[in-house]
Amino acid sequence: MNSAEQGLACEALSVRVPGRNLVEALSMQIRPGTILAVLGRNGAGKSSTLHALAGLNAAASGEIRIDGRRLAEWPRRALARRLGLLTQAVEDPFPGTVLDAVLVGRHPHIDFWQWESNGDRDIARQALADVDLATLDAREIGTLSGGERRRLAVAAVLAQDPSIYLLDEPIQQLDPRHQIIVLEVCRRLADTGRSVIMSLHDVGLAARYADEALLLFGDGRWLHGPEGEVLRAPNIEQLYGLPVRELTWSSGRTYVPA
Questions:
Q1: For 2-11, b where at least 16 C-beta lie within 10 A, e where not — what string?
Q2: Are 215 and 223 in contact (CB under 8 A)?
Q3: How many CB atoms lie within 10 A of CB 193?
Q4: Which residues contact 14 (CB under 8 A, 6 or more apart)?
Q5: Interatomic CA distance for residues 79 and 151, integer angstroms
Q6: How far is residue 104's CA from residue 106's CA, in Å, rounded to a whole number?
Q7: Domain total in the chain
Q8: What residues form DSSP beta bridges with 36?
């Protein structure tokens, strides 16, 4: 395979909802080893765009390719081994333990009518450890807090072990410590050659962890490029509609309302 074709790419992708044009003619390629942060106001189209990239919702127009192959041409099972999606709202698939829930992520790798292997359980337990849930593997899902359930949903996608991750607000409901834990996991995934596309609300964390940024303005306009060029005060002010002040220190920068 041509290395230029690897990863996820879209060309002239347009995303619409009734009465609104959210994204118009988006073209970009996210290669292996890259974290892309998607930012925008509530309702700007972050979730809709991620769902379109995953093939969950049809785009109004345009083309999406995975490793140079049109998204519609991928068999669903093969696509599930290549691409993992974390949605904002995740329902418990069935009553069970934390480990049972994470093992759901292994299903694309397990033949029909087969049970999970010890290897699958090892992968699931490692995913739980990665998000600081290792000691809760035997807990009933219904006993978890909101933040613990969110980390459990992240762990299930980690257990799926795709090469492309589409994560819709992976750190929502998380305390600051666990936000960093999850984002560090995302950084490690990218550093081992995976692609991570995630929506965030914290511009400072996006600047700290992302390689590229995609700003969605909610009216069809978008801006994509290296985070150091895209995540600048004038763009952030336009994105959120308020003046901001840039705060910098030796290892990063963030933006706060002025």
A1: eeeebbbbbe
A2: yes
A3: 13
A4: 21, 23, 24, 25, 26, 59, 60, 61, 62, 220
A5: 23
A6: 5
A7: 1
A8: 197, 212
- What residues make up the domain containing 119? 3-257
Which residues on neighbouring strands pair with residue 199, listed in sequence order? 38, 168
DSSP bridge partners of 167: 86, 198
CATH number of the domain where residue 50 is located: 3.40.50.300
Q: How far is residue 33's CA from residue 236's CA, in Å, rounded to a whole number?
A: 25
Question: Which residues, 6+ apart, have CB-to-CB distance to 35 below 8 Å?
Answer: 186, 187, 190, 196, 197, 198, 209, 210, 211, 212
What length is written for the chain?
258
> pLDDT 10s per residue in the chain (258 long)?
555 678 999 999 999 998 899 999 999 999 999 999 999 999 999 999 999 999 998 899 999 999 999 999 999 889 999 999 999 987 765 678 999 999 998 888 776 667 777 888 999 999 999 999 999 999 999 899 999 999 999 999 999 999 999 999 999 999 999 999 999 999 999 999 999 999 999 999 999 999 999 999 999 999 999 999 999 999 999 999 999 999 988 778 888 898
